[in-house]
């Protein structure tokens, strides 16, 4: 991954700020001097080829990995030094999210909601994601697209300030994909910042020119690709 300078509104306080981030695995530099800033309410994506360091960058932002060098701030907090506080900021949907197979959709939503002081109402959330007919369905019996919808719901039920979505539309049919992008717009309209790692660009994003270079990354915003 290479440095990606990103211009931003100087008067806005970024909710995510990454400066000269570096992280290596042995002799392999996975992230090599990446810098970007994301303002409140933006939709942004990190795109690049396999091995470009996209996942490592996000893990450093979430405090799951410790950078070798550089500076990372999430709502002004250090993900390492202020790890406990930072874990309360984002809601995360993983590409592969596994739950106990006997856990029902309703139980999963109630469990995750209990982790947050001011969770969202699970009922309208479930309705918007097409989970209303499945409240008593067990996770192990759900199809791929249904698991994906539940994973998104679990990322949103805590009313997070930042939403991290990994391979968001994988396993969804075209109609569900369109509805999911509409949901993202609704989330942003509510003030949340959305970070997604898309197999295909968000409808407002242009494909990044850097996507075919091994150690290159593009940070995509709802106003276009920057870097």
UniProtKB/TrEMBL annotation:
A UniProt-annotated Pfam family: ABC_tran
Region entry Disordered, spans: 189-214
ATP-binding found in the keyword field: yes
Main location: membrane
CDD domains: ABC_DR_subfamily_A
Span of domain ABC transporter: 16-223
Highest rank taxon of the organism: Bacteria
Protein localization: Cell membrane
Matching InterPro entries: AAA+_ATPase (IPR003593), ABC_transporter-like_ATP-bd (IPR003439), ABC_transporter_ATP-binding (IPR050763), P-loop_NTPase (IPR027417)
Keyword presence, Transport: yes
Biased composition (Basic residues): 194-214
Topological relation to the membrane, as annotated: Peripheral membrane protein
Alphabetic keyword roster: Antibiotic resistance, ATP-binding, Nucleotide-binding, Transport
PANTHER family named among the record's database cross-references: ABC TRANSPORTER ATP-BINDING PROTEIN
Protein name as it appears in the record: ABC transporter domain-containing protein
């Amino acid at each position: 991954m290479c440095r990606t300078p990103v211009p931003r509104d100087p008067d806005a306080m970024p909710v995510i700020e990454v400066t000269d981030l570096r992280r290596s695995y042995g002799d392999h530099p996975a992230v090599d001097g990446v810098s970007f800033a994301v303002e409140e309410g933006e939709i942004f994506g990190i795109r690049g080829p396999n091995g470009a360091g996209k996942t490592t960058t996000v893990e450093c932002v979430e405090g799951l990995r410790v950078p070798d060098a550089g500076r990372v701030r999430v709502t002004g907090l250090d993900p390492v030094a202020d790890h406990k506080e930072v874990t309360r900021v984002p809601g995360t949907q993983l590409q592969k999210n596994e739950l106990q197979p006997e856990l029902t959709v309703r139980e999963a939503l109630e469990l995750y909601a209990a982790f947050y002081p001011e969770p969202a109402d699970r009922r309208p959330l479930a309705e918007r994601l097409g989970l209303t007919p499945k409240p008593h369905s067990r996770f192990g019996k759900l199809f791929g697209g249904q698991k994906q919808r539940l994973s998104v719901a679990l990322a949103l039920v805590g009313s997070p300030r930042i939403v991290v979505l990994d391979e968001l539309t994988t396993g969804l049919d075209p109609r569900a994909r369109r509805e999911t992008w509409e949901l993202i717009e609704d989330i942003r309209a509510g003030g949340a910042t959305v970070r997604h790692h898309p197999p295909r660009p968000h409808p407002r994003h242009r494909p990044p020119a850097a996507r075919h270079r091994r150690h290159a990354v593009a940070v995509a915003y709802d106003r276009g690709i920057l870097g």
